[in-house]
């Protein structure tokens, strides 16, 4: 039975970095963070009574913005509390305080299968036999308890020494939760069964994911490559799996039994346990480099539902920086965008700030040495004289209320400027081939602009939509009057563009084809009220577009020296891909900061994104972009 206890109220005084936070008989140091998630930080902790090393997942309740977020947390706790297998990460205790939830779990010291593949490359069949025998044993207990994981993949199989542990149960369903989970796709598309694409999940969905995972570990690629989720589902249903390298006949049959499209004929976990590939007597003990050198950067945190920002900035490329400090759970986007001249706003001067942006050396493909770029601009706003304050991108208590409020508003306007450029690139470059995907994307970008402009217009009308400090006092400030004039001018421009796109999609035949997609249909209107569900649907469509453009470029690009410039005819597609990835990150950050516009202004570094300078792209840039797609699990 799961033990749940209420922790005593903890002191609010700052805790030194070398001090240990105590939760009953468990403790951890703030310097021992081993991973970050959507609203959580995972620490390497200790049971102070037994000295056993544990993992402590600290979930900030402020990051749980919607009922769905709470449901995901409940699902993880409900699933893990019912399981007690040597091949499933164990949950020891759960503690609740006013501000946080603490999950005390087994500490897995040897990384995960995804890291193993990234660091060591493809694995030998003999090494994987013993691993998958253990995974099957863990899954047998899950089936007995009526639990479906729904996000099995190599990154969610932890390793404790040589023992595999199924982890990351945030998307799991149990007999208690299955009826309350929303009817939306979850999981990672590359590992989803054909039925899962239709929102139907069962034990057989997880069996499919195990087959894909084994295939990937053996060959370094998944069985099917596609440019969109729709194409991927079609290939799964129509193209037989083919093997790009040698494996034993028994192993081939094991994988094929997992990847039968008809789930009634797909293997059960009991059939896999008895399969001759796992029953062979020469199961080998895992040897080689060993797993202890692997470091699981996001231990215990679900990757498919979380934004993973990595240090991959180089040579002025769109990039991300390290997460914020220990006391904050939000992720910091620190982006210095590359851009061509395409999609620039004409006759509109930028809303900018002085910035000091570190350009970090990209570890895998260094293109230039670390340097610091300083830019200082004094520009007018919509041809008006606005003595812009010099904003810093730090949270400082000494800011006066007016300056902080200005900063929040300007960040929203800069976000709209960025989206205007994204829309121009979508309109210019035809690298999205799936029927109506480009139209959906173009509509959503322009609607997103209008949603933000609607919030800004509401400010002018006296409604505090951006949670500004001392609002009534602030709106009488002369600076707000100048910003209001700029908002009105921007709104006229963006409204005209939205109406053009909106009217172009009202043809009855075209409209009927668009609304076949029920997710898109839910937001296909001219209602500009901001809901978090808009960004969930947006990111689903962005993900499809990004994968499709990546696929199209992959077919056209023959790799050259990383320093060599990309051909002009495909550079536009790479620029568009880069912008959409950044938009995906920003939309995810908006969800995280949904009721914290100041947090979005600080963490997004949106002023730097909106004011990127033209840079010709190289093959090295394209490699970085593809690496970012993989790291963000898009």
Automatic annotation (TrEMBL):
This is Protein kinase domain-containing protein. The keyword Acetylation does not apply. The lineage of its organism: Eukaryota, Sar, Alveolata, Ciliophora, Intramacronucleata. GO terms for molecular function: ATP binding; protein serine/threonine kinase activity. Residues 335-359, 381-391 have a biased composition (Polar residues). Pfam families: Pkinase. Keywords: ATP-binding, Kinase, Nucleotide-binding, Transferase. Residues 28-278 form the Protein kinase domain. InterPro entries: Atg1-like, Prot_kinase_dom, Protein_kinase_ATP_BS, Ser/Thr_kinase_AS. Coiled coil: none annotated. It comes from Paramecium sonneborni. ATP binds at residue 57. GO terms for cellular component: autophagosome; cytosol; membrane; phagophore assembly site. GO terms for biological process: autophagosome assembly; regulation of autophagy.
């Amino acid at each position: 039975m799961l033990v749940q206890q209420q922790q005593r109220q903890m002191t609010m005084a700052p805790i030194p970095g070398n001090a240990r936070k105590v939760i009953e008989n468990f403790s951890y140091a703030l310097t021992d963070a081993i991973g970050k998630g959507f609203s959580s930080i995972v620490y390497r902790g200790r049971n102070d009574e037994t000295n056993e090393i544990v993992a402590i997942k600290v979930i900030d309740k402020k990051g749980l913005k919607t009922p769905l977020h709470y449901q995901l947390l409940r699902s993880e706790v409900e699933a893990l509390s019912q399981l007690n297998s040597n091949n499933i990460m164990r949950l020891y205790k759960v503690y609740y305080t006013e501000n946080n939830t603490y999950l005390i779990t087994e500490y897995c010291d040897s990384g995960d299968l995804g890291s193993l593949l990234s660091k060591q490359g493809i694995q030998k069949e003999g090494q994987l036999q013993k691993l998958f025998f253990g995974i099957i044993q863990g899954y047998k207990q899950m089936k007995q308890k009526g639990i479906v994981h729904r996000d099995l993949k190599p990154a969610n199989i932890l390793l404790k020494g040589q023992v595999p542990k199924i982890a990351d149960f945030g998307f799991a369903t149990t007999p208690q939760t299955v009826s309350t989970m929303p009817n939306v796709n979850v999981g990672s598309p590359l590992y989803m069964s054909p039925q899962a694409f239709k929102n139907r999940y069962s034990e057989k969905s997880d069996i499919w994911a195990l087959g894909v995972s084994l295939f990937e570990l053996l060959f370094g690629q998944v069985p099917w490559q596609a440019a969109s989720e729709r194409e991927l589902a079609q290939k799964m249903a129509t193209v037989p799996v083919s093997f790009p390298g040698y494996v034993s006949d028994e192993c081939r049959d094991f994988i094929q039994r997992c990847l039968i499209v008809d789930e009634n004929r797909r293997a059960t976990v009991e059939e896999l346990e008895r399969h001759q590939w796992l029953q062979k007597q020469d199961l080998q003990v895992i040897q080689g480099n060993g797993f202890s050198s692997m470091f699981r950067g996001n231990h215990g945190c679900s990757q498919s539902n979380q934004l993973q920002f990595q240090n991959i900035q180089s040579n002025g490329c769109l990039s991300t920086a390290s997460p914020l400090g220990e006391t904050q759970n939000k992720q910091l986007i620190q982006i210095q965008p590359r851009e061509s001249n395409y999609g620039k706003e004409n006759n509109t001067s930028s809303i900018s700030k002085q910035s000091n942006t570190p350009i970090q050396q990209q570890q895998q493909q260094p293109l230039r040495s670390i340097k610091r770029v300083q830019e200082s601009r004094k520009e007018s706003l919509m041809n008006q004289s606005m003595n812009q304050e010099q904003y810093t991108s730090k949270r400082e208590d000494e800011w006066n209320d007016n300056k902080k409020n200005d900063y929040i508003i300007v960040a929203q306007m800069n976000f709209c400027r960025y989206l205007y450029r994204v829309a121009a690139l979508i309109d210019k470059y035809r690298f999205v081939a799936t029927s109506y995907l480009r139209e959906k994307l173009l509509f959503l970008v322009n609607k997103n602009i209008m949603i933000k402009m609607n919030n800004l217009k509401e400010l002018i009308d006296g409604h505090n939509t951006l949670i500004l400090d001392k609002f009534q006092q602030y709106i009488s400030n002369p600076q707000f009057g100048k910003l209001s004039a700029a908002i009105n001018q921007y709104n006229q421009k963006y409204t005209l563009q939205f109406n053009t796109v909106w009217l172009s999609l009202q043809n009855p035949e075209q409209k009927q084809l668009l609304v076949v997609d029920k997710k898109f249909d839910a937001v296909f209107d001219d209602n500009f009220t901001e809901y978090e569900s808009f960004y969930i649907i947006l990111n689903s469509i962005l993900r499809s577009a990004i994968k499709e453009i990546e696929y199209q470029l992959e077919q056209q690009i023959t790799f050259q020296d990383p320093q060599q410039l990309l051909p002009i005819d495909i550079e536009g597609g790479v620029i568009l891909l880069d912008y959409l990835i950044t938009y995906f990150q920003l939309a995810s950050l908006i969800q995280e900061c949904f009721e914290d516009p100041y947090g979005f202004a600080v963490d997004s570094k949106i002023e730097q994104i909106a004011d990127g300078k033209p840079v010709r792209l190289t093959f090295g840039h394209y490699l970085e972009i593809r690496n970012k797609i993989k790291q963000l699990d898009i």
